[in-house]
Write a structure and sequence with these properties.
This protein is α+β, with helices and mostly antiparallel strands and 745 residues long. It contains 27 helices and 18 strands. Strands 1, 2, 3, 7, 8, 9 and 10 form a 7-stranded mixed beta sheet that branches. A 4-stranded antiparallel beta sheet has the order 13-15-16-14. A 3-stranded antiparallel beta sheet has the order 4-6-5, covered by helices on one side. Helix 15 crosses helix 17. The radius of gyration is 35 Å and the shape is flat. 37% of the residues are buried.
């Protein structure tokens, strides 16, 4: 049996349709599962004016159920028993007794499916999670736009549902303009419904609408010797605007082709929802566009094309004005001055102050990515200038892109205080200004040019430390400042450019700039020495933390107060945890385990490149038999040490000795460790983590043999102590690669 539910309303915004379809499917599945109603297939469809749910294979009613309810003990007071009997509607003779406890068996007949579906439909309508919704008339229902009809059928019969005076029925309607006399029509089931809509110029399936738009658009272009500029995002949106999409080719004034192609495409895409087309011979934009109409015009679309061409001409005329005005001499210097009056955030100062921080960071990061510090400084200084330009004011989507064009166009006049640049230097700066926002998402490209990488890293790091400093951290799904995206961008940039970034040091430096509101020369630090001392087990975690904090005080004490340093240490530590979480997400998408990231981060290493290399090598190692066996041996050794160290009140460390009359397995493990450690040291020093895993794998067989033949807690104290020290060597050797205690399995 089949349920057909259609919720028919005024136009649903295209951007909400896909999410609405997912929510409708989720809510239906949850309610069917709660009602224990099985089904064979569930489908949802979303379009400009309707949400449709189709469920096949439903039973006529719930299955009868028997519920066993536990009652009071047999020797409980009579009042307790009487209360239980009242709640079940049974008599004492109908109860069963097991192990001195009463139980009631209740037979519950299944409810008719239409009754359950009526409740489900009303609950879904009243609680539907639209991102934005409205009320209308005198009702209390909130919907994205006024709800007009509810079609609800089960096995061809109307399921009675009433929501705010809207009664369900078996009636729907087709296309707003092209439907058969625009009259509603009745349906019996989904096949009847889909066929009736198709006859009335409605393509129900969004995927089919997209295929239709793309195929027709390419065909129209081919007829005129043109090529469609594919845009999946725009295709998705246009498919949500038209129930009967008809692509129409329009003409554009060729003189506008002297504008940057990004300006033309943005004006078409963002403001008018037009597709751009290009000349396949040159690969450049052609003076035409494709608009998707929601009707099949009798004149072939001439009037529609002409009207849309006039609108596009007005838009591009504005763009040409801004393009000309923005290139007047001295424009960039004027924009930089304007940034002093643009607030970045009430607690983080102006955009000009933010630029100063980015300049200091970019100049410092430049040597790490192989960039010229001078060019990184110039690019960072100019990277936000176009925000004050006329073009970006009209088309915010072009920030960065227009900056790159303007740097090239105005470079001949030079940049204040920077002297004259060569053509290659101008191109490097322009590319950095253009691409420093990248990557904007997981599918966006990662810039690899050194100057671009320096400015992009500086921009994202300043964003992260700034908002963490004012406690504007992401919470749940809320991330209004795009901090998750920024952290992922830093990780991908570091990986792509092989940038060796000590997160603690770089984030601390960026934080000092935020705290003191001015740039400063970064002092040389020996934080890496502290990290290596901690890795080599020469200092404790507590000492490691104390030394890093003291080094911050020595390096930056003259620039920030003691209170600021404490604050910085706290939120920089939070930021490092945040980076670990983002790295887990990135590596999980690549098929890596999240616990391996925790295991590597626990070493205190903040170098993103090294962390990823360790995780990849560890992931490969643990998939081998040697890796799985060594992990099991490590955990067994760690568990023994944990118990015995707690019992003895001390931590075992050092080097195990060759004792007289020691078992062969013990001697073999001591020798294996002695041979492994130099190879492990050499591999780690070379950052060859695959070789480090190979070195560790040599311990697998001796360790398995040791545990299989040797009793660790020997009655002789010296023997027991030596064997515990031996296990501590195993633990320490493995923990030099990663904290194996954090690895599951």
């Amino acid at each position: 049996m089949q349920l057909l539910l259609e919720l028919f309303s005024e136009e649903i915004p295209a951007r909400m349709q896909a999410g609405a379809a997912r929510d409708l499917e989720r809510m239906a599945r949850e309610r069917l599962s709660a009602a224990e109603l099985a089904f064979e297939q569930l489908r949802v469809f979303a379009g400009p004016r309707r949400l449709t749910l189709v469920i096949d294979g439903l039973p006529p009613a719930q299955a009868d159920r028997r519920e066993e309810r536990k009652g009071p003990r047999a020797n409980a007071p009579d009042q307790a028993l009487q209360g239980f009997l009242r709640s079940t509607g049974l008599t004492r003779d109908q109860l069963t007794e097991r192990d001195g406890v009463y139980f009631a068996c209740l037979d519950k007949p299944g409810r008719p499916t239409p009754v359950i579906l009526a409740e489900m439909a009303e609950a879904i309508i009243r609680s539907f999670p639209w991102p934005k919704s409205m009320r209308w008339g005198g009702g209390t229902l909130r919907w994205v736009r006024p709800l007009k009809r509810i079609l609800c059928l089960f096995d061809g019969a109307v399921v009675p549902v009433i929501v705010d005076g809207i009664e369900s029925g078996d009636v729907t309607e087709g296309h707003r303009f092209m439907g058969e006399r625009h009259d509603p029509f009745s349906v019996l089931n989904f096949d009847d419904y889909a066929m009736g809509l198709a006859k009335r110029f409605v393509i129900l399936d969004a995927a089919e609408r997209k295929r239709e738009i793309e195929a027709r658009a390419k065909a129209v272009c081919a007829q005129h010797g043109l090529e469609l500029v594919e845009d999946q995002g725009l295709l998705e949106e246009v498919a949500g605007l038209a129930e009967w999409p008809v692509p129409i080719l329009g003409d554009m004034d060729p003189s506008f082709l002297d504008l940057p192609p990004e300006v033309i495409r943005t004006s078409m895409r963002v403001h008018q929802r037009y597709f751009a087309v290009r000349d396949p011979a040159t690969g450049k934009l052609a003076p035409h566009f494709l608009v998707t109409a929601n009707i099949a015009p009798q004149d072939g679309g001439a009037v529609i094309a002409h009207g849309n061409a006039r609108v596009l001409t007005a838009r591009l005329s504005d763009a040409r004005f801004f393009w000309t005005e923005d290139q007047r001499p001295g424009a960039i210097d004027a924009w930089l001055d304007k940034l002093n009056g643009v607030t970045f955030h009430a607690k983080l100062g102006t955009m000009a102050e933010r630029v100063e921080r980015i300049v200091a960071l970019a100049e410092d990061i430049a040597p790490r990515v192989g960039a010229d510090p001078k060019l990184a400084r110039i690019a960072a200084k100019l990277c936000k200038a176009d925000l004050a330009s006329g073009m970006v004011g009209e088309f915010p989507e072009l920030q960065g892109v227009m900056g790159g064009y303007y740097v090239r166009a105005l470079a001949s006049a030079g940049f204040e205080g920077e002297g004259t640049l060569t053509a290659d230097e101008v191109n490097a700066v322009a590319d950095a200004v253009r691409d420093h926002y990248k990557p904007l998402g997981p599918s966006d490209s990662v810039p690899t040019a050194p100057v671009t990488a320096a400015v992009a890293l500086a921009d994202k790091l300043d964003t992260l430390v700034g908002f963490f400093a004012i406690d504007e951290k992401p919470t749940g799904s809320r991330d209004p400042f795009g901090l998750r995206r920024a952290a992922l961008g830093v990780i991908r940039l570091a990986q792509s450019s092989n940038t060796r970034v000590d997160l603690f040091e770089v984030l601390t430096q960026a934080s000092i700039s935020v705290e003191t509101d001015h740039s400063f020369e970064r002092l040389q630090s020996d934080i890496n020495k502290i990290i290596h001392a901690y890795e080599d087990d020469l200092i404790s975690k507590r000492e490691y933390t104390r030394l890093r904090r003291n080094r911050m005080r020595q390096a930056y004490g003259s620039r920030a107060s003691e209170t600021s340093l404490k604050r910085i240490y706290l939120y920089v530590s939070d930021l490092i945890v945040f980076f670990a979480d983002r790295l887990k997400v990135l590596l999980r998408d690549e098929g890596k385990r999240h616990d391996l990231v925790d295991a590597v981060f626990a070493l205190g290493d903040d170098d993103l490149v090294r962390i990823v290399r360790r995780v990849e090598a560890l992931d490969g190692f643990l998939k081998t038999e040697d890796g799985a066996s060594l992990l099991a041996g490590y955990k067994r050794a760690s568990n023994i040490l944990k118990i015995e160290e707690k019992k003895d009140g001390l931590s075992y460390s050092g080097t195990a000795a060759h004792l007289a009359e020691a078992p062969a397995a013990e001697t073999a493990l001591i020798d294996a460790i002695a041979q492994t450690l130099p190879k492990l040291d050499e591999a780690l020093a070379a950052e060859d983590y695959t070789e480090a895993m190979i070195a560790l794998s040599k311990l697998r067989i001796p360790l398995d043999t040791f545990f299989g033949t040797v009793f660790v807690n020997d009655p002789a104290p010296d023997v027991r102590k030596n064997r515990l020290i031996l296990l501590s060597q195993i633990r320490a050797a493995a923990d030099r690669v990663a904290d194996f205690s954090k690895i599951s399995g």
